[in-house]
Design brief:
The protein has 11 helices and 12 strands. It is an alpha/beta fold. It has one domain: Rossmann fold.
Length: about 300
């Protein structure tokens, strides 16, 4: 596996650590209507860009509003996606790369906080028809989007679970939605929102059922080879609900860390302490400085 070594003194002390700071990196994830065009759409409409920018924009909007799926390259593989994702691209290519490196045909992957499904779609290609991909996503509009992308690609190995992964099962809890749920900032945690990260600035609340990964593994008899957790401040809650899985030490974890978005009373060092106590090491990491702290993605593997 080609990953970046991350044996750091701060890790030994139980403190957050990183291996690489990119000079510039978009914050966390793309929202609908992002800046980068879908490569195939851009290519197809290129003749219209120079003489008629308005025509180019009209073409983009026409495709975005259509009911037909749009082919795109995702990690070098052709994948069909919903047309309203035109203009959005994954802004965490390092996480896509880690998933590619970790997974093999017939493997099982859990995508906790699946959002638009970029990670799940890449994982479906990687594990193949004999593998399994579980996409956990409680936001109602994003659940529909994931189910659509699953259907148009014929990914029978993908299952969408419309519950919030947390530290307890079968509870009905508030879930905070931004932009009607079409946002990467949806969360169990009611944290402040940067206005620039929202299209409308409108926040609403729905109620969703919780589930723990330990209980899900028990009821489905699934053992994931890799788990990605990116749920905007709820990561430690999800990890506290899968201590059995962690103690098994057969699973790699890709975890997003949002220090200033944690629930009241939690500290980011607790997350690192948990992995350290169960003898996991950081195999790779990447972060950006945002909101006065280091927001990042970490790959934890059994030592």
């Amino acid at each position: 596996m080609c990953v970046i070594s991350a044996t750091l003194d701060c890790w030994k002390l139980g403190l957050p650590c990183t291996t690489k700071r990119p000079p510039e990196m978009p914050i966390l994830a793309a929202t609908l209507g992002g800046e980068e065009d879908n490569a195939m759409l851009t290519s197809a409409s290129k003749p219209a860009q120079k003489p008629a920018p308005a025509l180019h924009e009209f073409f983009r909007r026409l495709v975005r509003c259509s009911k037909f799926p749009v082919p795109r390259l995702l990690n070098g593989r052709f994948t069909l996606t919903a047309s309203n994702l035109i203009g959005t691209t994954p802004t965490e290519p390092h996480v896509l790369r880690w998933i590619d490196e970790l997974l093999r045909p017939r493997d099982t992957f859990f995508d906790v906080g699946a959002h638009y499904g970029w990670m799940s779609l890449v994982a479906c290609h990687r594990v193949g028809a004999s593998g399994k991909v579980i996409a956990f996503e409680p936001s109602p509009p994003l659940v529909k989007l994931l189910q659509y992308n699953k259907k148009v690609n014929g990914f029978r190995q993908m299952e969408v679970v419309s519950k919030a992964v947390a530290d307890s099962d079968n509870r009905l809890v508030p879930f905070y939605l931004l932009d009607g749920g079409n946002s990467f900032l949806n969360s169990l945690i009611d944290h402040p929102v940067d206005p620039s990260a929202s299209r409308t600035g409108q926040k609403s609340v729905t109620h969703v059922e919780t589930i723990t990964l330990d209980e899900f593994c028990k009821t489905t008899d699934l053992q994931p080879n890799a788990v990605k957790i990116d749920i905007e401040g709820g990561e430690l809650l999800a990890l506290q609900g899968c201590t059995g899985l962690l103690k098994g030490r057969r699973t790699a974890f890709i975890v997003a860390v949002h220090p200033t978005w944690l629930p009241e009373g939690q500290k980011v060092v607790e997350l690192f302490d948990l992995f350290r106590a169960l003898r996991y090491r950081i195999a790779a990491s990447q972060f950006v400085h945002y909101d006065g702290a280091d927001f990042g993605d970490y790959l934890f593997v059994p030592d």
